[in-house]
Design brief:
By secondary structure, the protein is mainly alpha-helical. It has three domains: about 40 residues, no CATH class; about 120 residues; about 80 residues, Helix Hairpins, CATH 1.10.287. Helix content is about 75%, strand content about 0%. The protein is built from 13 helices and no strands. Helix 3 packs parallel to helix 7, helix 7 packs antiparallel against helix 8 and helix 10 packs across helix 13. The longest helix is centred in the N-terminal third of the chain and has 30 residues. The radius of gyration is 22 Å and the shape is globular.
């Protein structure tokens, strides 16, 4: 049960009008907790959005913008379609959700798709959850790398635009790109020690303490339960779980190489 509206209503009401005000505040807070104000005044944004709404917008935006990136050079290649299918398979989507994801992907491919509006909506809903935006960007990077395994200037420009529109700063796409390749190698069971360092975002000269800190930071950022609490769709938890497994494998590989 949600109590935050009743608690705030009690204290504000009591400060303004004593016991009677507190009672009135609890009643108003109760209606807030039930979501009536959000229904009356339209779709909530940012911190006021429910987890279900965050999940809905995140799911829609992910596949729409993957479609946009795939079509950005005028055509959608087989490798780009394969990446979209791979993401759907990793999410273990049922047939109904898979059809929905395909429809969203096709929407993003259309010439009249409003990229700005889609990104603005995602930013409004997920602005208070930067970890979700990072997951979103990592999925878009997979699509941008689909054809050649490298970011060309056009795809890099689109990703920079997406980051700017979402208000995400400080993204090093070179590091993102290297980490994405390393993750692919872990998926193929052909990861090297260099891949392990890339997964953790550190170099081989990093101290043991720096490596441990990087490991803990990444595990905290990508913990499936924490991401789900912030609004990551349940279907995408499989991807988050796989990522934390890769992080653990990378950390263990480095420790073993250092005889720790």
């Amino acid at each position: 049960m949600n109590w935050i509206g009743k608690i705030i209503g009690f204290f504000v009401g009591y400060l303004l009008a004593g016991h009677l005000g507190a009672l009135f505040g609890i009643i108003i807070g109760h209606f807030y907790d039930l979501g009536y104000f959000r229904r009356w005044f339209g779709t909530p944004h940012g911190a006021f959005a429910s987890r279900a709404q965050v999940q809905h917008v995140f799911f829609n935006s992910t596949f729409q913008i993957m479609g946009y990136i795939a079509k950005s050079d005028g055509r959608v290649s087989e490798s780009e379609i394969a990446v979209a299918r791979q993401v759907m398979q990793q999410m273990l989507l049922n047939e109904a959700l898979r059809r929905e994801a395909v429809q969203l992907f096709n929407q993003g491919k259309k010439t009249d798709f409003d990229l700005d509006a889609a990104l603005d909506h995602l930013r409004e809903i997920c602005h208070h959850h930067p970890s979700l935006l990072r997951v979103f960007l990592e999925l878009q990077l997979q699509m941008a790398l689909a054809e050649t395994g490298q970011l060309n200037e056009d795809k890099r420009r689109i990703l920079h635009f997406i980051c700017g529109r979402l208000g995400v700063v400080g993204i090093d796409f070179s590091q993102f790109e290297q980490r994405a390749r390393a993750e692919q190698n872990y998926t193929r069971h052909s990861a090297t020690l260099s891949d392990a360092y890339r997964i953790l975002g550190v170099n081989s000269k990093a101290s043991d303490e720096e490596i441990k800190m990087a490991y803990r930071r990444l595990m905290n950022q990508n913990h499936p339960d924490k991401l789900m609490a912030k609004g990551l769709p349940a279907e995408m938890l499989k991807i988050a779980t796989r990522k934390t497994q890769q992080i653990k494998q990378a950390y263990e590989q480095i420790k073993q190489a250092r005889n720790k």
